[in-house]
Specification:
With 79 residues, the chain is an all-alpha fold. It contains three helices and no strands. The chain has one domain (4-68).
Amino acid sequence: MPNVEALDGFLAALACCPDTILRSEYIPIIQSGSSADGDLVFEDMDEATRFMTLVGRQWNHVNAQLSSGEGYLPLLVER
């Protein structure tokens, strides 16, 4: 994933999918392409755990927005 906005959109697309997409299916896609060998590299287990926690929080946030019936507001980062 190139940035947090792309991650947000990706998770929204997954949440709208009629089939359930398992975490084990989408995490490798998020992690791909970040190093020469194509993997996201973490300095230690704490960093990996923090990453997975943050992705899980964003997943829950996107799903809550889409389930609320109030509409989905994509995450946009002001530069």
